[in-house]
């Protein structure tokens, strides 16, 4: 009986020792594997960041993560230190590494001439609120539809909206930097600044754009080369419910 008890205790001790040795081996293997990956810190975007965001306001949108050095993108930043006073040149999306090239001096942010103007065209700039420029998401190079709403002077309550131009090239967008603030993870902050949107049109169309901005309201829609052409039928306040 005593020999059986001793044998059982010995077996239990061996089992415990084996478990500890296995755990220690696995732990050391994990450390060896991690060391082999040569981890490096990079700044990664956590939540959407609008173009023009100040570096000082980026802390709530990004975090530093350790990744294998082989996965580090060229120019990725390890921290925000030394980038003070700069702004994001483009909108940033969750998951992307923050590149030094994405941060520029405010004076270098998108300016007229960012996209080549087609031959025979000229540039005309209009000032629009965020809701009229697809929530402030328009960028140089985009194609837009230009809608104009006008009110009948004889009947202030009667208005009509019509697509005036299709596939208008946006050559530049200048936006006021958004104010700081936090948002629910995965959502974008509501833009609160107006935008100067520069369009490429011929002289006659430019005159129509300028007049529409003075006597009516302009609203832009984002289009693509595959957007079908519109029949440009005007919609009035009466026709909304038809």
For the largest beta-sheet, the strand count, sense and barrel status come to: 6 strands, antiparallel
Give the fraction of residues assigned to helices.
10-25%
Low-pLDDT sequence parts: 179-184
Structural category: alpha+beta
Proportion of β residues? 25-35%
Number of strands: 10
- Average pLDDT, rounded to a whole number, is 80
Rounded radius of gyration (Å): 29 Å
Shape: elongated
How many domains make up the coordinates? 3
If you had to describe this structure to a student in words, what would you say it looks like?
- This protein has 242 residues and is α+β, with helices and mostly antiparallel strands.
- The protein folds into three domains: 36 residues; 70 residues, Type Iii Antifreeze Protein Isoform Hplc 12 (Alpha-Beta Complex); 120 residues, no CATH class.
- It contains two helices and ten strands.
- The longest helix is centred in the first third of the chain and has 35 residues.
């Amino acid at each position: 009986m005593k020999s059986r008890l001793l044998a059982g205790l010995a077996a239990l001790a061996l089992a415990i020792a084996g478990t500890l040795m296995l755990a220690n081996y696995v732990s050391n293997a994990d450390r060896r594997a991690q060391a082999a990956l040569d981890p490096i810190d990079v700044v990664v975007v956590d939540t959407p960041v609008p173009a023009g965001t100040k570096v000082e306001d980026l802390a709530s949108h990004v975090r530093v993560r350790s990744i294998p050095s082989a996965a580090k993108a060229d120019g990725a930043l390890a921290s925000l230190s030394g980038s003070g006073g700069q702004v994001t040149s483009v909108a940033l999306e969750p998951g992307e590494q923050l590149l030094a090239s994405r941060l520029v001096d405010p004076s270098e942010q998108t300016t007229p001439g960012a996209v080549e103007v087609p031959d025979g065209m000229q540039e005309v700039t209009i000032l629009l609120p965020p809701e009229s420029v697809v929530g402030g998401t328009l960028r140089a190079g985009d194609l837009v539809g230009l809608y104009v709403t006008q009110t009948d002077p004889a009947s202030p309550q009667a208005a009509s909206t019509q697509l005036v131009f299709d596939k208008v090239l946006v050559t530049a967008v200048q936006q006021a930097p958004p104010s700081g603030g936090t948002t629910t993870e995965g959502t974008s902050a509501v833009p609160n600044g107006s935008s100067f949107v520069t369009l490429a049109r011929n002289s006659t169309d430019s005159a129509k754009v300028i007049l529409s901005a003075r006597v009516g309201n302009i609203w832009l829609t984002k289009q693509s080369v595959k957007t079908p052409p519109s029949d440009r039928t005007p919609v009035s306040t009466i026709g909304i419910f038809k």
